[in-house]
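Please decode residue identities from the backbone states below.
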């Protein structure tokens, strides 16, 4: 047995490289990351290839390890060299990600030290850090002191926590679901209905409320829908307004929504995954007025606060239903979670073994200060207005609605031919070129191009370049 142990130890120790081996790995990884960042200003925003990433199959998981340079080569070519560049300032599609360098460092350090952020007894510092970040976010959103929440892997997961909390607060049981009505606008993100289904509430009636010409939920239509449901003997339960839609960045009238939620006893859970971060800026405090009246809200630091992908926050005004929805007991834990000095993140989500996710936001905030974030967000708002003004000057362009936040939806109006096909062709051409990455959507049935300005690396140069690429594509295709 002892010989066998010795033999196995000799092999398993390879998993824990010593200082000397680590030095080589550090250096190669640092060189890889640094080369990526140095190339970034000129690197394509999108790489279109046939069977992208399929070359990974040439590097199957081996029994014996491979040399690091060979592995990095494949990473560069088959993963980091295809599809959308999630770090590029010319990524203007969907809702662009950023990945602040300090956020990436936070992830790296969190992974190396592997502090446990699920349970206070084991990871008191990591847990306090998560709670500190949540408290800061809640304060910035205007929620009252004592609000709570959770740092989830993204907005969709954060919504699931919010929906389960709202269900708990209303005391809904399975038999109630077919009567528990949910209200959202016809512009709401698909993840709300998905989260309802995942929460087992697929039978809950979902009312898609029509929007106005600026794609904002119409409060009078909402009230009419609530009254219809009450008359039909149903139970209006949940209102999910959007603070910044994915399509156009439209902000629903949050104050009017909060009034109706209060009047009819609905839980207001606001989807600010994209837009809520703009509450950090002065110019958008008014647009987002009423956000602070939400019972719960979601905002995605991996969008509006520029962290690496994998960070969505749910903020909740009422701790009790949040905690009850996720309560647990276990004999193998040293004490019941509610006896601990500080709220544990595992009490407010499904996750238990939770990595120190907060560090990816806490570190950049500590290092750069909140003011730099406010300035970056204000810059994005202004860039969107700038881009819209420039689009207005172009002939044969419908510049679309004035941006409420940092997204634009617009379309070329070719003198002849099918406008939808033309705009799709412009988009396909830009994607194939890869210099800038835009996306498209349908508004009122018509295909529109979208320019989403949110990457920390998007500044005036990148917007100018996108506008130039668009004009050139349109000219070539005309
Ligand atoms: C991105 C987004 C979501 C979903 O968040 P993920 O982080 O992608 O899971 C929900 N709502 C809106 C408005 C969004 O923009």
């Amino acid at each position: 047995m002892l010989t066998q142990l010795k033999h196995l130890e000799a092999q398993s120790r390879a998993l824990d490289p010593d200082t000397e081996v680590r030095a080589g790995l550090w250096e190669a990884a640092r060189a890889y990351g640094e080369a990526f960042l140095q190339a970034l200003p000129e690197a394509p925003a999108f790489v279109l290839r046939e069977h992208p990433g399929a070359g990974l199959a040439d590097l199957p998981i081996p029994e014996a390890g491979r040399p690091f340079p060979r592995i990095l080569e494949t990473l560069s070519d088959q993963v980091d060299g295809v599809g959308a560049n999630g770090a590029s300032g010319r990524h203007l599609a969907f809702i662009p990600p950023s990945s602040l360098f300090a956020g990436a460092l936070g992830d790296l350090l969190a992974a190396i030290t592997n502090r446990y952020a699920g349970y206070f007894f084991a990871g008191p510092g990591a847990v306090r850090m998560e709670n500190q970040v949540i408290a800061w976010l809640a304060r910035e959103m205007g929620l009252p002191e004592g609000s709570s929440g959770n740092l989830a892997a993204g907005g969709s997961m954060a919504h699931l926590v919010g929906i389960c909390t709202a269900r708990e607060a209303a005391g809904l049981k399975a038999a109630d679901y077919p009567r528990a009505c949910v209200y959202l606008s016809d512009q709401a993100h698909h993840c709300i209905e998905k989260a309802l289904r995942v929460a087992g509430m697929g039978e809950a009636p979902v009312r898609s409320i029509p929007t106005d010409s600026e794609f904002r939920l119409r409060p009078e239509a909402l009230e009419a829908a609530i009254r219809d449901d009450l008359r039909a003997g149903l139970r209006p339960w949940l209102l999910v307004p959007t603070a910044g839609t994915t399509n156009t960045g439209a902000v629903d009238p949050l104050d009017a929504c909060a009034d109706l939620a209060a009047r009819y006893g609905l839980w207001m859970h606001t989807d600010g995954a994209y837009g809520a971060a703009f509450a950090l800026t002065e110019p958008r405090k008014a647009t987002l007025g009423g956000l602070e009246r939400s019972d719960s809200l979601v905002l995605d630091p991996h969008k509006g606060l520029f962290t690496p992908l994998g960070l969505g926050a749910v903020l909740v005004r009422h701790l009790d239903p949040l905690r009850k929805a996720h309560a647990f007991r276990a004999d193998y834990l040293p004490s019941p979670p509610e006896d601990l000095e500080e709220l544990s993140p595992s009490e407010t989500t499904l996750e238990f073994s939770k990595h120190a996710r907060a560090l990816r936001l806490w570190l950049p905030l500590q290092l750069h200060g909140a003011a730099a974030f406010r300035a970056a967000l204000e810059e994005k708002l202004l860039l969107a207005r700038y881009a819209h003004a420039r689009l207005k000057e172009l002939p044969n362009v419908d510049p679309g609605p004035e941006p409420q936040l940092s997204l634009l939806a617009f379309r070329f109006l070719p003198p002849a031919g099918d406008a939808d096909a033309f705009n799709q062709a412009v988009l396909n051409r830009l994607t194939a070129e890869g210099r800038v990455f835009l996306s498209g959507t349908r508004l009122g049935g018509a295909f529109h191009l979208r320019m989403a300005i949110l990457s920390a690396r998007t500044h005036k140069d990148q917007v100018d370049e996108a506008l130039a690429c668009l004009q050139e594509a349109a000219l070539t295709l005309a």
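Observation: Residues 95, 154-156, 189, 191, 242, 245-246, 271, 273-274, 300, 312 surround pyridoxal-5'-phosphate (CB under 6 Å).
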